[in-house]
Design brief:
globular; about 230 residues; alpha/beta; 7 helices; Rossmann fold; homodimer
Chain lengths: ~230, ~230
Amino acid sequence: MSMGGRKAVVLLSGGLDSATVLAMAEADDFAVYAMSFLYGQRHVVELDCARALAAQSSVIEHREVEIDLSSLGGSTLTTDAAVPKHDSVDELSDEIPSTYVPARNTIFLSYALAWAEVLQATDVFIGVNALDYSGYPDCRPEYIAAFEQMANLATAAGVGGNRLVIHTPLIHLTKAEIIKRGLSLGVDYGKTTSCYDPAPGGVACGHCDSCLLRLKGFSEAGVVDPRPYK
Amino acid sequence: MSMGGRKAVVLLSGGLDSATVLAMAEADDFAVYAMSFLYGQRHVVELDCARALAAQSSVIEHREVEIDLSSLGGSTLTTDAAVPKHDSVDELSDEIPSTYVPARNTIFLSYALAWAEVLQATDVFIGVNALDYSGYPDCRPEYIAAFEQMANLATAAGVGGNRLVIHTPLIHLTKAEIIKRGLSLGVDYGKTTSCYDPAPGGVACGHCDSCLLRLKGFSEAGVVDPRPYK
């Protein structure tokens, strides 16, 4: 938890994955600048979790950015449409689900890119995961590689030779591996939320894609999820 | 000015370039969805111009997105620091100027990408220009190509085979050529603004990089700029 290292911008949603990434960036001795987004998502309990996680870490600064994606529509995460529910993780389809938010990671990474340039940071961390994930296109390695290439042509810093690196330390891990890694770093998963459709107070539904993947991960890791479920 | 064509998202700043691009997209029979940003720029007269341009065109919908880039800092365009002034266009340096806003076009294009996906549009227009321009890295053809490549890996639409195309019809034109093209399409340049540091009421300073490039363009085109200068 040293603060002497190089600066890094860490995208912190308040979920299980980004909480783990935050701990990993700190373990790697980065001086962490955390960035969260209020984007019209129905699960604003995420922001409370992000704040709690940032507060109990050595984050130098936690920036919350309010952006309006819900007015663009296109996702059950940011509208009143129903979030899909299932009884088991085996029911998840291979198709891109309705919870996909158009261009969300691209917008998040673009803000991170801007802040990194202002901070003179050349490292950005994002907790995308291409194994136990919801099938979103903007979580795949080839997408991240293309964003990094674009970013280095976009900025004065990149043109000046300060190459930006997008770190995705979870991308090839299973959810169980992520949880074990985080527990070894002291992550308090009781302060994270994953549910796409939580009840008031933040109680998880237990049946959306994200809950099912999380529960499967804890089960496979042999650990009880400290988060309350309905 | 037909509205029967394919949908396109046009980034409309209210400047000379984007006004011309709007007219070109309409001339190409696209059904235009215009997008403008209030991003903490000191020259909010831009938004008034964007509204006026959209109102007198056949734009289907004009979306104004409020985003907070000024809190990130890093540019004389979004802070109280002085915008550089010069007596002539020959004084412009080859270096990236202080008016550069970190990752601005990347953020703008990311929102356009999101809206395009929701609209099921596969065409985005942006008025970047790599000849008579201020030396911003995110105006170069290699940057735009990299963004397009990233965008097609980012979205469900791209994964589904609906390839997004970023149109940059001005990229290899001189400012004089842009103006002549716009005039042939009926663009009212009196409804556009280019100044980075306008006086109250929108009167242009005549000495910032953008004013000098604009004035040189009108001079070379042999046309009087209808916009008031100090």
